[in-house]
Each structure stands twice: as C-alpha cells, then as structure tokens.
Specification:
heterodimer, A: mainly beta, seven-stranded mixed beta sheet, globular, B: mainly beta, five-stranded antiparallel beta sheet, 11 strands
Chain lengths: 115, 111
C-alpha cells in the first residue's frame, strides 16, 4: 500500500532513556515532517526535511534530533527522555513544488509514554 | 506565530443532522485543508482548497475557501456514526511558511 508508515506504534520507556522513532513514505514525496500532538490534540510542527535537508526547525529541545538518510525516510531520535515528552508523534510527507508547501499526508502516529 | 481559530470546539449531534464548522484567521491564507482524525490514527486529508471562493465537495462533505482568504468552513450533510472524530482545519499562510493547524472540532454523533 502507498502510505506513510511509522514504527513503533507504541513506545513506553523510562525517563532518561534514549529512543528512536522511524518513518518511511512510499508516495514519492520530497518533503517529510515530524509533528507532536499533545494531550489536548493540538498539532505542532517540529521539523521538516526537503530532499534530506533540514528546512524547518521549530523551537524544540536539542534532545530531539531528526535524521533523514534518504528522501523516503525521516527518523526522530530523542535523548534523555523527560515526562513532558509524552505525546503522540506524527510523521507526514508532501511534495514541495516551486519552493512552496503542499498538502501533507500523515502516518498513523507513535504514542510515546515516558514513565 | 500565526493561529487558526476553529469552532466549535466540540459538537454533539443526532444521526442524520447536518454539521457545520469553521476556521478563521487574522491573516490571509493561500491554501485551506480539512483533515479528520479517528481515535488512534493519524489525520486524513478530506478536502484541499486553493482559491478564494472555491467550493469543493467530497461525498457528503463540502468545504469553502472564504473570499477574504481569512476563513473556511466545512459542512457535513446527513451525519452518520462513522463521522465521529476530530476535524482539523489547516492552512498555508501567504508566502513559504509551514502548515498551521486549528485546534480541532470534536464531533460526536448520537445514533
């Protein structure tokens, strides 16, 4: 199926640990994103990569480090996890035409719980 | 940063009723998108609007791009139980800026 996929779906870990979330898209898009959705369901962009280059880096603690090995993959590594990092993290992708953003397609989300 | 004001925050309606929700901004937007999020899933794109005044339908859903470019609405006709979920408006402000989301409208349908 053509889609944006994320692994794992659920991630439960202890405070202070380091964890990674993986994202892959087979839609042929050139831009990928990470969003954080808090308990009130508010969606906020964290990062965006276009052709493996970082183009958006919102005010996110530097414990969060995205890595894009190729256009189809964008992984999110989180160091020294804190309680406040508990949220649902969504990966998304889109095609960027003429330097402009276009509609984004989302993965199923990774629910991170930090204990 | 730019914000979208989405209303209502939540709605409880009877099955078969029509639903209307809207999104407003204090600044101009180039594109309006409407997404639906089911529990435990990611947002799914319902309708994309690209021009002021544009009216687009997707089955029982109809959305319009306001002529001032500062608002958009989504209507759902003859609601059914599977319409339950959170509906998000989102938009691209003028210029090359990332997607901005509204805070969502949580829809509950009573059978």
């Amino acid at each position: 199926d053509t889609a944006v996929s994320q692994t794992p779906k659920y991630l439960v870990t202890q405070m202070g640990n380091d964890k990674s979330i993986k994202c892959e898209q087979n839609l042929g898009h050139d831009t990928m994103y990470w969003y954080k959705q808090d308990s009130k369901k508010f969606l906020k962009i964290m990062f965006s990569y276009n052709n493996k280059e970082l183009i958006i880096n919102e005010t996110v603690p530097n414990r969060f480090s995205p890595k894009s090995p190729d256009k189809a993959h964008l992984n999110l590594h989180i160091n020294s996890l804190e309680l406040g990092d508990s949220a649902v993290y969504f990966c998304a992708s889109s095609r960027r035409l003429a330097g402009r953003y276009n509609e984004q397609f989302f993965g199923p989300g990774t629910r991170l719980t930090v204990l | 940063g730019q914000q979208l004001n989405q209303s209502p925050q939540s709605m409880f309606i009877q099955e078969g009723e029509d639903v209307s929700m809207n999104c407003t901004s204090s600044s101009i937007f180039n594109t309006w998108l409407w997404y639906k999020q089911d529990p435990g899933e990611g947002p799914v794109l319902l309708i994309a609007l690209y021009k002021a005044g544009e009216l687009t339908s997707n089955g029982r859903l109809t959305a319009q791009f306001g002529i001032t470019r500062k608002d958009s609405f989504l209507n759902i006709s003859a609601s059914i139980p599977s319409d339950v979920g959170i509906y998000f408006c989102a938009g691209f402000p003028s210029g090359n800026t990332p997607l901005v989301f509204g805070k969502g409208t949580r829809l509950s349908v009573i059978a």
